[in-house]
Amino acid sequence: MAGPAGGHAERVRATCLDLPGVSERPSHGAPTFFVGGRSFVTCWPDGHHAERFPQAWCAAPPGVQQELTETEPERFFRPPYVGGRGWIGVRLEAVTSARELERICAEAYLTVAPPRLARLLESLPPPAGQPR
């Protein structure tokens, strides 16, 4: 999933806005995606502070942050500020496919979405030729 920083932001934006009930607004100067009034992904296409690689911070279910940061530290990290709440940091240049990005964003969405919207997402058919 290589490309310029702006390309990373556009892929994250398109993926998140394709989910039911999602809105986007800046938070702390970064594109941030919300469902039911709660954020679930923040994208830093030019990096954040000293970490100058394109990244997304994503809500995650309990235990996922520890598992991913231990098994794939070259791709996932504990982000500042929200890492204490279990969120994962994703190195966007290390995302291997559009499908992987969709799974990461959908997992973040399901972590915070109201039950009605979570059920709606789970009931949608997967894109053509792709299992959900």
Describe this structure in words.
The chain has 132 residues and is α+β, with helices and mostly antiparallel strands. The protein has a single domain, classed as Aspartate Aminotransferase, domain 1 (Alpha-Beta Complex). The protein is built from 4 helices and 6 strands, in the order αββββαββαα. The chain has a 6-stranded antiparallel sheet. Strand 1 and strand 2 form a beta hairpin. The chain is globular, with a radius of gyration of 14 Å. The two termini are 20 Å apart. The model has no long low-confidence stretch (mean pLDDT 89).
The count of helical stretches stands at 4
Give the termini distance in whole angstroms.
Answer: 20 Å
Unreliable spans: none
CATH topology value: Aspartate Aminotransferase, domain 1
Strand content: 15-25%
SSE string: HEEEEHEEHH
CATH architecture assignment name: Alpha-Beta Complex
Structural class: alpha+beta
**Biggest beta-sheet profile:** 6 strands, antiparallel
Give the proportion of residues in helices: 25-40%
- Integer average pLDDT: 89
Number of strands: 6
Radius of gyration, CA atoms, in whole angstroms? 14 Å
Count of domains: 1
Q: Tell me, briefly, the overall form.
A: globular
CATH class: Alpha Beta
**Spatial order of the strands forming the largest sheet:** 1-2-3-4-6-5
